[in-house]
Amino acid sequence: MKLSLTLAVCAIVALAADYTAGERRHWAFQKRSVPAIPAVEPAAANPIDAFIRARLAKEGLQLAAPADKVRLIRRVTFDLTGLPPTPQEVDAFVNDKAPNAYEKLVDRLLASPRYGERWAQHWLDLVRFAETDGFEYDTHRPDAWRYRDYVIKSFNEDKPYTQFLTEQLAGDEIDPANHELAVASGFNRLGALRKNAGNQEVASSRNEVLTEMTNIVGSAMLGVTVGCARCHDHKFDPIRQKDYYRMQAHFAAVQEREVPLTSEAERSAWKAQKDAVDAEVKELKKQMKGLQGEDLSRMQAKVKSVEAKAPAPLPALFSVRNDYGENFKPVHVLHRGEYTKPGEEVHPRSLGVLLPDGAPELGPEVKNPRTELAKWITTDDNPLTARVAVNRIWLHHFGRGLVATPNDFGRMGQRPSHPELLDYLANQFVEGGWKWKPLHRMILLSDTYRQSSLLEVAAAKEKDPDNKLLWRYPKRRLEAEEIRDAMLSATGRLNLKTGGPGVMIPVQQELIQLMYKPEQWVVAADQKEHDRRSVYLIAKRNLRLPFMEVFDSSDMLISCPRREASTHAPQALELLNGRIANEMADALAARLTEFSAKDHAKQVDFAWRWVAGRAPTAEERKLSMEFLASQPLREYALAMFNLNAFLYVE
Predict the structure, then answer these.
(1) 584-606 exposure pattern, b = at least 16 Cβ within 10 A, e = fewer
(2) What is the pLDDT of residues 31-54, one digit of tens each?
(3) Residue 103 lies in a domain
(4) Shared domain check, 417 and 524
(5) Of residues 470, 168, 444, the one with CA closest to residue 319
(6) Same domain, yes or no, for 439 and 451?
(7) Does residue 20 form part of some domain?
């Protein structure tokens, strides 16, 4: 009898608790530890090296010897700026005998405006930034580029990460009149947007929009797959379906907002011109009914001609606002995630597994729900936010995070390879005011980062074939943007102009014709615009540039925390036969000729220093000279862009 009563009481207690002790025990949901820096011999000047060396010592392994200065400057320059060092920069670093030469180099690169352009790309991948809606229409978002420029500026200023997140989640709530904050809050509408002609299902579309807003917060900011709880309780992580919709309720009032940057008179004149064009197009389409053959083709051409007269969109800020009027609908738990089957109404609350049992919802009266969500995400003791952020920094310096699944710190994600180091870095990040650059500096000045990638140790390869323990620096292939930008740099054509609308460059006509509206692709008239850095090329969801796609650029539809580095035949074909590679080969050949019209030896040395960042070896020089004895200079230039010495960072 007593046993039955005890079991009954336990059952009641279990039902009363939001989450069991076992569910809360997962490492990522635990408060960050304060690990002691391991003692190693000889003593490590950098705490990172102490943690890494201590773990290696357990396996009988050690760090590799330091990388030479030529390889090191190329590595760190690409990592921080996405561009290669110039030959002059390489020479200056190699010849600088000061003990702090490398430290000065790191500081110079962190202060460069190129740093923000490179690290903004990582964030833009993560939040699936694009300048079009996606789906069939792939409608252009003419002012979305301002968000990209906001991100670049934020990284260059080393804006505290907590402020960076808060501005994006709730900038419009904090100060509706502040233009920078309005642009930042455009984060909430970065997801793909389905638009249907004639049969728009508003409820379905709205549900998709709210789903996009909720899921990206989980993936990008918290590193958990909250989206898996949309249709039912999460199968693996302690995230209830009800808590998913409580998270979603923070966004219930969010509606699109275009903040005009023109006067009322300018807007009225624009509307009058647009209405006139729309009326003419409508009349022509009426006349098209029943037409066939050439008559239909002529009328379609006329319609396109009239549509081309429509005025360009007026400048505005791509943003959001809260609307608690008649368009506001409270959030309900949806049975199996179906918008046609609403259940219990819920109000804003953060993830229950990280809250005390019985923590209340904010209630329907809260008027700044996203600000409240931002406060919870950015609090110093949130166990996820800082860990997730520092793991991303580590990932982009070593090609692999301390947690190898950067968007999934849950039970189906991988456990950290160095849990104490992860918490140590997260604590340093928080104590340092959530600034990125000091953390970069600590990582880059470590012996772990500066070690050679060339070491081959049989015992290490057997014990740790994936180099998870970092017994050598992990050689990596350049990302798509880095390859294109490095080509432009080597040819002397790179245009370092910053900011502004996304640039459209020439692409195959067959791809343009596949678009819903081919006339949307208008190539920039100024040739110099074609040579802008890749971060400034238009991010169009339904037309990814072939050169970028073949080298694993993100698809802009889902969060991309880490670029793949595949190796396949189309990459070689693109580098040998593609338009961009051949244009760059012509430009490099012209530059080599200008440098030295007939001296192949000088041309070879110049080409290697600009393309590979170093002088050629004796064997490389010999093979180059033999090649040029029978082949044109532009073929040699093309071959240079196909070398591993160009495509990989060691």
Answers:
(1) bbebbbbbbeeeeeeebeebbbb
(2) 999 999 999 999 999 999 999 999
(3) no
(4) no
(5) 168
(6) yes
(7) no
H helices within 250-364, ranges in order?
Answer: 264-288, 293-307
Can you tell me the distance from the alpha carbon of 43 to that of 312, in angstroms, rounded to the nearest whole number? 64
Which element (helix H / strand E) includes 260?
A: strand 254-260
Query: What residue type is 441 in one-letter code?
Result: R
Q: Are residues 151 and 216 in the same domain?
A: yes
Does the CA dihedral 198-204-210-212 come out positive or negative?
Answer: negative
- Per residue in 484-537, pLDDT (tens digit) is 999 999 999 999 999 999 999 999 999 999 888 888 899 999 999 999 999 999
Q: What is the mean pLDDT of the chain?
A: 94
What residue numbers bound the domain in which 429 lies?
382-474
- pLDDT: is 182 or 6 the higher one? 182
368 within a domain of the structure (yes/no): yes
Domain count, the chain: 4
Beta bridge partners of 331: 346
Q: Does the pLDDT at position 258 exceed 90?
A: yes
**At CA 628, angle to CA 627 and CA 629, rounded to 5?**
90
Query: Quick one: 419 and 522 in the same domain?
Result: no
Give the pLDDT confidence of 101-129 residue by residue, as tens digits: 999 999 999 999 999 999 999 999 999 99
Cα–Cα distances in angstroms (integers) from residue 202 to residues 9, 332, 633, in the given order: 47, 16, 60
**DSSP assignments along 38-91, one per residue:** PP-SSPPSSHHHHHHHHHHHHTT--PPPBPPHHHHHHHHHHHHHSSPPPHHHHH
**How many CA atoms lie less than 13 Å away from 604 in the CB half-sphere?**
17
